[in-house]
Input
Amino acid sequence: MEQLGDLELLMEKSFRENVEPPAEQKVEASFSKTVLSRGVDNRYLVLAVNVVQNEEGNCEKHLIITASQLLDYKELCILRNNWCSVPVEPGDIIHLEGDCISHTWIIDEDFGYLILYPDMLISGTSIASSIRCMRRAILSETFRNSDPATRQMLIGTILHEVFQKAMSDSFDPEKLQELAFQTVQEIRHLKEMYRLNLNPDEVKQEVEEYLPSFSKWSGDFMNKCTSTDFPQMQLLLPSDGSNNNATCNIEVVKSLDIEESVWSPRFGLKGKIDVTVGVKIHRGCTTKYKIMPLELKTGKESNSIEHRSQLVLYTLLSQERRADPEAGLLLYLRTGQMYPVPAKHLDKRELLRLRNQMAFSLFHRINKSATGKEKTNLAPLPQIIDEQQTCKYCSQVGNCAVYSRAVEQQMDDNSVPVGMLPKIKEETQHLKHTHLEYFSLWCLMLTLESQSKDNKKNHQNIWLMPSSEMEQSGSCIGNLIRREHVKTVCDGQYLHNFQRKNGAIPITNLMAGDRIILSGEERTLFALSRGYVKEINMTTVTCLLDRNLSVLPESTLFRVDQEEKNCGIDTPLGNLSKLMKNTNTSQKLRDLIIDFREPQFISYLSSVLPHDAKDTVACILKGLNKPQRQAMKKVLLSKDYTLIVGMPGTGKTTTICTLVPAPEQVEKGGVSNITEAKLIVFLTSIFIKAGCNPLDIGIIAPYRQQLKIINDLLAHSSVGMVEVNTVDKYQGRDKSIILVSFVRSNKDGTPGELLKDWRRLNVAITRAKHKLILLGCVPSLYCYPPLEKLLYHLNSEKLISFLLLIFHQENMKVFVTYWVIFKEDKTLFLAFFHTSAVISIFYYL
DNA sequence: GCTCTGCTAAGAGGA
Output
C-alpha cells in the first residue's frame, strides 16, 4: 500500500511538473491533420515526456498525453522496463494498447504496447529485416530499387503463385503440373527470365522439383479421416495457459484468402499474407478452430528468427480483420516441412519496439534547425553494425558506405565502428569529393521534397474519419452497396458496380481513372482492395478492383476513398544510388552530370546513319524548321547528350523524336509483333481515357499469336473488356473504333499468305463506324499487292502518320513515350520503318 | 491559390 501511495505521489508530481509550464502549450502534433481520439483506434498527442526513477531505482518514462483537440483533458502514460527506450518526444502522436485505469496507462513488460506514429504503416518484412541491421532496413525503405532481382526470387515468386492457385484448386499431381506450366508461361515471368538470361524450360524444371513436396504437404495436413491422422506438432497458444500439453495434431481445413493485403493503423503495420487458412488444433479430446496466416518460403529451411517474426507480425495484422490467431504457420516448400509459430507477448513486444525505432528513423530524416540559424541537413541513419559477415552479402552496402562518407562523416558526432572503416573506404574509393557532395545534396533535396506538405499521404483520414465527414472534401463516397454481378476481367481485375444505399451519389471530385482504396464501412473491412474508378455518374460508381468482393454478404456497406497522389522520390533516389555505383556507365554519367564534362559529338552523319535510312531521315527533316533541323542534326551526332533549350511552344518536343523499328517474331505459335501489340494496347488505353466505352472498341490482327499477345497485355493493363479477334470474327459486324495490327515487318520481304487476301483486308478496314487505326510497317506491307494499293491511296490522301517514339530522360531514367498525331479524318495509318536512330536527351530545368 | 506532372506495392531469396 505504501508503495502505491508513493507511486501516486510521483504521478501527481509529474503531472504538476509538466502541466503547468507554458512551453507545453506550444506543442503541436507532428502530423498536422491527425484526428485525436480515444477508444480502440485511440490517437494521443504527447504533451510532455519525463524520465523518472521509481522506488527500485529503475527508470520510467512518464508521458502527459491528450486525446482532446483542445488539449484540455490530460492523461498519464507510464512506460516501464524496455519501453523506456521508446524515442518518444513531445508533439508525437502515439497509439496505446492496454488498459487505462483512472486516467493512467501503464505499459510494462507483460502488458500493453505503445505504437509511435501509428499512422505510419511499416511492412512486416521491413521490420523482420531490421532485426539483423536497422540501418539496412531503413536504407532498403529509402533506396527501393537497389535490390537486384535474382533467379531465386523469380523461382520463389512463381512457386508462391503455383501453391496459391493449388490452394483454391487442387494438389493433384497432374493439376500441379498444369498450374506450374501455366504460371511459368505468364508474360511478366517470361520478361523477368529474359532479363535474367534464363531459359523457361530450366525454370519450369526447377519449379517442378518442388511439386512432390506440395502434394506431400496437402496429403499430410488436409482431408484425413480422424484427427490423430494429422501430423503431431508442438504448439501452445498464449490462451492455452502454461500447464497444458504442447503436443497437438494440426489440420488445415481450408484456405480463406490468398495474398490478403492488410493495413493495420492499430499497430502501425502493413503486409500481405501469403495464405489465410482455417486450422483445427486437435489436443486430446478438444479441438480449437483458428484462422491463421500461412507463410510460404521456397529457400533454405532455416526456421530463422526473421521468418518466424514475419508470422508474429502477421498475427497482429490479422487482428485488423478477425479474432487473434495467436499463432501462424511457416511452410518451407522445398521439403513440405511446416513449423507452427506461436505469437508470444514477448515476441510481439520486441517486434513492436523495433517497429517504433524504425518509425522514428523514418520520420526524423532531416535535422531541422531549431533556431532557424543552423543549416538544415540530413539526419544520421541508425548505427553501422560491426559484423563483417552480415555486411558481406548486404545489397545496401554501397548506399550504406556512401551515406556514411557523404553525410555522416561530415558531422561532428559521427561514430563508425573502427573495424568497418576499411570496408566503407573500399566501397567509396571510386568516388571523388564532388560526387559525395552531389549525393548528399540531392539526398537532402529529395527528402525535403517528399516531406513537403502537399506530398504527404493522408491515408489516416480513411481510418480515422467517418465517410460522411470525408465526403465533404469530395474525395470519398460512403454508404455504397454492390449491385449486379462482379465481372472478372482477368486474374486480379474485377469490375464492381456500386450504388448509394439511399439516393443519389453526392457531389464528388472522384473521376474515371482515379486510383482508389475500397473499404467496408465497418472497421474490420478497412482497405479491402485497391483499384481505379472506371466510370462514375449520378447513380453508380463502377470500379476496377484487385479483389473480388462477391464473397462478402450483399448487405455490406462500402466506402470508396480517393488514393492521394504520392510524390515518388523512389525513382530519383534509386537513380542517385545507381549514379554512385562503381561501374563504367555510372562513371561516365558522373563525369557528365556531376563534373560537367563537355558532351562529345561525332563529325559526320554518314558514320551514324545507316545508308537506307537516309530518305527516311530526310523525310522527317522536311517537316521541321531550320533551328529544329539544326538541333536534330546535333542530336544525331551526339555521343553523350544534347541539350535543346527553347521557349515553350517553339517545338522542342517535335524535334525530340525518332523512328523504332518494330520487327516481327516468327515462332511455333505463329507470327507476332510485340511493339505493335504494345502500341495497340497503349492506343486502346488512350481511347478509353478519352471516354470511349471499351465495348465500342475492336482490335483486329491477322495472326493468332498476335491476338494472344495483345490479350495478355490487355489483361495486365488497366484496360480490359476490349474485344480482340481475327478478321473473320468481325465479318458482318461493326464497332465504333477499330484498331488493326498488320504484324508483318521484315527486311527480306518474306510474304505471308494471309495478308494477300484482298477480301480479308476489305473486311478489316470496313468495320469501323467512327475511327479506323491501321498500324504497320510500311516498307514490309508494300510487298502485298492489296496493301500496296491501300497505302498508295492513304499516302495520296496524306493519311499516313509516321509513328514517333520519344525517348526522354528525366531523373536519369529513360521513358519511352509513343507520340501519335490524331487527325480529324476517320482513317489513320501509323507507320513504322526498318531503321532507327536512337536519340538520348537529358532534360535540364 | 489554382492546376498540371510524376505514381502499385510488399516480398520474391541469400548467408
Observations:
- Residues 123-126, 147, 149-160, 261, 270-272, 274, 297-300, 302, 310, 389-390, 392-393, 395, 515, 530, 546, 563, 565-568, 570-571, 810-811 of chain A lie near DNA strand B (CB under 10 Å from a C1').
- Chain A has a mean pLDDT of 81.
- The longest strand of chain A covers residues 247-264.
- Chain A has 26 helices and 32 strands.
